[in-house]
Design a protein that fits this description.
Layout lengths: L13 E8 L2 H4 L3 H10 L5 H6 L1 H7 L12 H4 L12 H21 L1 E8 L6 H13 L3 E6 L19 H13 L3 H14 L7 H16 L3 H12 L5 H16 L9 H15 L5 H21 L3 H16 L7 H17 L3 H14 L4 H13 L3 H14 L4 H13 L3 H14 L4 H13 L3 H14 L4 H13 L3 H14 L4 H13 L3 H13 L4 H13 L3 H14 L4 H8 L1
Parallel strand pairs: 1-2, 2-3
Helix pairs in contact: 4-6, 6-7, 8-9, 8-10, 9-10, 10-11, 10-12, 11-12, 12-13, 12-14, 13-14, 14-15, 14-16, 15-16, 16-17, 17-18, 18-19, 18-20, 19-20, 20-21, 21-22, 22-23, 22-24, 23-24, 24-25, 24-26, 25-26, 26-27, 27-28, 28-29, 29-30
């Protein structure tokens, strides 16, 4: 038994007490979450279980939870699961599981005390669960126990951290599929210590590959490359060398530090990968591996600015995929279509991009990211209702998704629903407090809703981590201006235009501030700079007011007439023209 459940403490307040160890070596990356799930699932109403089926199956795979939501990867053969979950995957699972705990406790009118021992030994995935519970489940409380706690039962995930190297391949692969990259690193290293690298076994190779991929996913690129360097000295297998060359190319292309990105070096590695893959004797294996490498080269060429070459490489990859047996490698095929869609967006082919994204959604309707990609494209095209529908679907088919709430807030803001947009930003920050852009937008919305002091706390917190963020500085300028502190507001806008001279909103904000403080000439100049970056009827209207205040009615009328051409229905523009 892995937990304890105790009786109500009174007739009015019901308390569930759950005890468990947090030691990842006892029960895997979700030792704590699984212990909670095993207690709460039998008590939970069926609709609550159905609402959170995906998260429950992720944290406690031994429970019999009916499948309501799933993506194509769940049914694909392991060799065809080419998508590596981003580190945010575990955060999303944690937020969804915390919502399950919250909903169960609300349905039962109960509070929960979780008593955890060996907390320092918890996997980062479990730590995310505990942090999410603290944010999202008000009836939950945590107590750290000093002594030992009950261990997970023997038929659960305990076996992941026991056995030979093959047991550790299996466990590392399970964790990699679920985005538990810290666990992958630990398990792979433990497994490699048990395996003789001189033999070059398949177990050794899988552990090496999983380790390099997980390190790269966690932005530990130098460690990943060191693993690959050591492995290259231990194998002569051309397929493995090709895979390692491709991985090195992606590490250099996607390095989290821009100054460490090396597109020339990446091109050399990916060309080696392509050369080796082209020599593979099996036609089907060659088509898959070569197509994968060509697709990687397309990313490099796109980042080098050669979109035509990138498009040709993706098209060649798609031609190779078309030679595969019907139904083979479905994820590889749809990833190629999504990548082509991104290239088509960059080249201005929105219709073609939408066609590709439609196909991706149809091929894997349970994968939320494609709905977000399509929603972004629809929003950029001004098709707000359709964009909103895609964001709603993304939130319905997957675990909580902070970016989808953030993007939906932009649609709601564009439609004039400021309170709805604010609610989505609140949710986005509840799910991921590190989203600086969401905090900046929420601060701006609070200013627009007449709550500048509430906005200040967001700005201060965000600026502490990103002091040069021009959007935050613009919002700070608005806050200081609303409080009548012109000098402080001007300093904030000055810093914003210094940080981002091409940011129209920074020039516009400084211009409006100048106008409101009786400086029409400065307002005209700054609003003019903003208009040089993009014509906008609101900016033209504001500059017209500044021209009038400076005694230039003719220039004001020209701005108003142009504003009316751009937005003939605006009542303020029509009224100003009538004056």
């Amino acid at each position: 038994m892995d937990s304890g459940v105790f009786a109500p403490r009174s007739s009015e307040a019901v308390l569930l007490r759950v005890e468990t160890t947090a030691d990842r070596r006892a029960g895997g990356p979700y030792t704590v979450a699984a212990a909670l799930a095993r207690v709460l699932v039998p008590l939970a109403p069926a609709p609550v279980i159905a609402e959170h089926d995906l998260e429950l199956r992720a944290v406690a795979p031994d429970l019999d939870v009916p499948v309501r939501r799933d993506s194509l990867a769940a049914s694909a053969d392991r060799s065809e699961r080419i998508l590596v979950p981003a580190p945010q995957r575990t955060l999303r699972i944690a937020n969804g599981f915390a919502a399950f705990v919250r909903d169960v406790l609300a349905a039962l009118s109960e509070t929960l005390l979780l008593v955890v021992s060996e907390l320092p030994e918890a996997d980062p995935a479990d730590r995310e669960v505990l942090a999410a519970l603290a944010r999202r489940a008000p009836a939950f409380s945590l107590e750290e126990a000093a002594g030992p706690a009950p261990r997970p039962r023997a038929d659960g995930p305990v076996r992941w951290y026991a056995g030979d190297a093959a047991d550790h391949q299996d466990a590392a692969e399970w964790c990699l599929d679920r985005g538990c990259h810290h666990a992958v690193i630990e398990l792979a290293r433990l497994g490699l210590a048990l395996e003789d690298p001189a033999g070059g076994s398949e177990v050794w190779w899988n552990l090496v590959h999983h380790l390099a991929v997980a390190l790269g996913a966690l932005e530990r690129e130098e460690e990943a490359e060191a693993v690959l360097k050591a492995a290259r000295a231990l194998t002569t297998d051309p397929s493995r060398h090709s895979t390692m060359a491709y991985t090195s190319a992606m590490l250099l292309t996607r390095h989290h530090l821009r100054e460490r990105r090396d597109l020339d070096g990446a091109l050399g590695w990916v060309n080696l990968a392509i050369a080796l893959s082209d020599l593979l004797p099996d036609p089907e294996n060659r088509a898959v591996k070569l197509g994968f490498d060509l697709n990687g080269k397309a990313l490099i060429m796109a980042r080098r600015g050669d979109l035509d070459a990138a498009m040709e490489l993706v098209e060649e990859s798609m031609r190779l995929a078309a030679t595969l047996p019907p139904g083979a490698q479905p994820i590889h095929r749809l990833v190629l279509r999504v990548n082509r869609a991104q290239l088509r967006i960059l080249t201005g082919d929105r219709d073609g991009a939408l066609e590709d994204l439609d196909a991706a959604v149809a091929a894997d309707p349970g994968y939320p990211d494609y709905y977000v990609d399509r929603g972004n494209l629809l929003f950029a095209a001004g098709r707000h209702d359709e964009a909103l529908a895609d964001y709603n679907t993304a939130l319905a088919v997957g675990p909580p998704f902070a970016e989808a709430h953030y993007n939906r807030s932009e649609v709601l803001f564009a439609r004039g629903d400021l309170k709805g947009a604010l609610q989505d930003l609140d949710t986005a920050l509840e799910l991921d407090p590190s989203l600086t852009d969401a905090r900046a937008n929420r601060a701006g919305l609070l200013v627009a809703l007449g709550e500048p002091e509430l906005a200040r706390s967001d700005v201060d917190e965000a600026l502490a981590g990103d002091p040069g963020n021009p959007y935050l500085l613009c919002t700070l300028g608005q806050i200081e201006g609303a409080a009548g502190r012109y000098r402080e507001a001007r300093a904030a806008f000055d810093r914003a235009v210094e940080q981002a001279p091409s940011l129209a909103v920074a020039w516009a904000g400084r211009g409006i501030l100048a106008f409101e403080n009786g400086r029409p000439e400065e307002a005209v100049a700054d609003l003019g700079r903003a208009l040089e970056l993009g014509e906008d009827p609101g900016l033209l209207f504001n500059r017209a007011l500044a021209h009038r205040a400076a005694g230039r009615p003719d220039q004001a009328e020209r701005d108003l007439r142009r504003a009316a051409e751009l937005d003939p229905a605006d009542p303020e523009i029509r009224a100003a023209l009538a004056d």
